[in-house]
Amino acid sequence: MNINFELYKVFYYVATTLSFSKASTKLFISQSAVSQSIKTLEKNLNTTLFNRNTKRVTLTHEGELLLQHVEPAINLIHNGENNIMETKALNQGKIHIGASDTICKYILLPYFKKFHSRYPNIHLQVTNRTSIRCVDLLKQGNVDFIVTNIPNNNIDDSMEVIEFLEFQDVFIAGNDFAELRNKFVSLKELLKYPLLMLEKNTTTSQYIYNVFKDNGLSLSPEIELTSIELLVELAKINLGISLVPDYCLQDNLLEDVFPLEINEKLPRRGLAVVMKRDIPLSIAGKKFVEFISRG
């Protein structure tokens, strides 16, 4: 089937804005031209791509399936255009990175500062998601690369992984749990205390649930949150014992909490840059990855 690419382009903008008028504005064509293009595409595919009524436009099931294929293709073309427009002197360009709030705050901020100082005309765009959701962004071509915790079960063979930092997860507690200070505690003993964890759709949660499972234990957190920052704050006010990466434990924090000594050895984890193998990074993207990998 030979269908004009422009029809798919129109479909992409209608599907991502869910508006014929907004799509016409982005494409610099009339709304009637947008409508006619969608009708032609639907006729060629012999299916309905949008549900239309006077108040809103939504994707049909077939429309959602088509968008899953069209979106990465459109993003790939846009990335190619951006790469061509870049100069080797890095006088212009854009890097789109996916990373969690925690990784941005504790790991990437110094790199952002250093890179911006060296290449002020390169625009850095960051989308914050959990490490698991960041992989989805990469699969859809919505980011150039991601910085994620590893292991990450969402990463597949189509992706290249460059590990640049190893870290240790640490249980921390406030002063109300002073009986645990300077004492080795087993994971089984920890279950007697209120445990504060990240929510289950995160690499950290998957990791710690597996650690307890491997030791024949069932983990049932008192509270599950979406933010490492909140886990730290709740530990500081003695609401429970939190699990956090050791790179979050700055000196001023250790005045309010202390790390627990655990009998069982917790496996170390890593941080990595992950990119698609079949999509080359822009010159600016490669330079930023060099900044990270060299430390």
TrEMBL record:
Alphabetized InterPro entries for the sequence: HTH-type_LysR_regulators, LysR_HTH_N, LysR_subst-bd, WH-like_DNA-bd_sf, WH_DNA-bd_sf
Keywords per UniProt: DNA-binding, Transcription, Transcription regulation
A GO CC term attached to the entry: cytosol
HTH lysR-type domain mapped to chain residues: 3-60
Single annotated GO MF: DNA-binding transcription factor activity
Alphabetized SUPFAM superfamilies for the sequence: Periplasmic binding protein-like II (SSF53850), Winged helix' DNA-binding domain (SSF46785)
Pfam families: HTH_1 (PF00126), LysR_substrate (PF03466)
Family membership noted in the UniProt record: Belongs to the LysR transcriptional regulatory family.
Protein name: LysR family transcriptional regulator
Organism, as annotated: Vallitalea longa
